[in-house]
Amino acid sequence: MSSSYPIPMPGGEASPPPIPAYRLFNADSVGLATFLGTPIAGGILMAVNYRRLGKGGKAAAVLLIALLVTALALVFGYLVPQGVSALVAVGLFLGARTAAKALQGAAVEQHVRQGGKLGSKWAAAGLGIALLAIVVGGYLLVYSALNPKVQIGTKDEVYYSGSATQQDAQKLGAALKTTGFLSDRGASVFLSKGNGGTVVSFVVKEGIWNDPAMVASFEEIGRQIAPSVGGFPIQVRLIDSARAVKKEVTAGKAIIGTKDEIYYFGSATEADAKALGQALQTAGFFRDAGFSVLLSKGDGTVIGFVVKEGLWDQPENVATFEKIARQVASSAGGLPIKLRLLNNTMETKKEVAIQ
Predict the structure, then answer these.
(1) HEC readout, the chain
(2) What span, in angstroms and rounded, lies between the C-alpha atoms of 290 and 277?
(3) In what order do the strands lie in the sheet with 348-354?
């Protein structure tokens, strides 16, 4: 066992302690490695010091602590805003430097007094950068495994989860290209399937979820893409860049008789659609001739009729649909309602408020 005390020599002289053949890393190197490469890098340097000082147990303990701190730092850094993440990195640097000085500072100083050399800061920086690359690469691998996606074009992405498959995501991407939503501008869409049904989530700009016209546009997109993801109903979600759900609506379809159909959106349910369908049969509008009607609930109630081109410009025909809307309004929750006359692509060509 080495000692810091002089060794007595014959004749009363004492020999100087041997110069250590190994190098130790000081607190600055530990802090630098931590800053560049997470606490694991700083922990490795402290563990190297302990091993060279003959303290294997402490080396193992400091590595375990470094792993735990790194895991907590990664989780915390993911949850907080980017600016706060930078402060976390600075805090880890200061914490690692302080811990190294408190736990190993005296041993490092004695090592230097005996003529021992310090580990290179370049080596500490290199270790930090290498560990950072490993940690980031591992994170990306795990993230990719947990968040599989397909690339649509060169920039757009469709992520899929639950029981959804890569093929489902590709079909959805193709359908969204047809609608014009995906046009290679870096849009992100999330597809999920499970016991709760099918959910398609769109990352949208701030505030779009508060615009009724934009919400209606996404309802229509939901109607168009539903067949590509297994059919109706589906849940359409508008989410922000942090994936927080800001608006959720239903896009569903009810068949009335064998040919007539009602598409329902927003908070409207299949039961609401069937009630409206029965009322339209009673009113004589639905006669199993393949007519399409829209029912939307949320920011008020909307009943829309898909009609022949130009009919919306004929006052007498508009008045007929107003009469039908009044007859069936009670089945949809009562007045007031909005009557819409739609073209074959479900675009609104005429809207009338019925009180």
Answers:
(1) CCCCCCEECHHHCEECCCCCCCEECCHHHHHHHHHHHHHHHHHHHHHHHHHHCCCHHHHHHHHHHHHHHHHHHHHHHHHCCHHHHHHHHHHHHHHHHHHHHHHHHHHHHHHHHCCCEECCHHHHHHHHHHHHHHHHHHHHHHHHHHCCEEEECCCEEEEEEECCCHHHHHHHHHHHHHHCCCCCCCCEEEEEEECCEEEEEEECCCCHHHCHHHHHHHHHHHHHHHHHHCCCCEEEEEECCCCCEEEEEEEEEEEECCCEEEEEEECCCHHHHHHHHHHHHHCCCCCCCCCEEEEEEECEEEEEEECCCCHHHCHHHHHHHHHHHHHHHHHHCCCCEEEEEECCCCCEEEEEEEC
(2) 12
(3) 149-152, 156-162, 188-194, 197-203, 234-239, 245-256, 260-266, 292-298, 300-306, 337-342, 348-354
Nearest to 33 by CA among 45, 21, 49: 45
pLDDT of the chain, 355 residues: tens digit per residue: 444 445 555 555 556 678 899 999 999 999 999 999 889 999 999 999 999 999 999 999 999 999 999 888 877 766 666 566 677 778 888 999 999 999 999 999 999 999 999 999 999 999 999 988 888 888 777 766 777 999 999 999 999 999 999 999 999 999 999 999 999 999 999 999 999 899 999 999 999 999 988 998 999 999 999 999 999 999 999 999 888 999 999 999 999 999 999 999 999 999 999 999 999 999 999 999 999 999 999 889 999 999 999 999 999 999 999 999 999 999 999 999 999 999 988 889 999 999 9
For residue 76, what are its two tokens?
A: 């915390």
Strands 197-203, 234-239: pairing kind: parallel
Is 0.85 topped by the overall pTM?
A: no
Q: What is the spatial distance between Cα 130 and Cα 41, in angstroms, rounded to a whole number?
A: 9
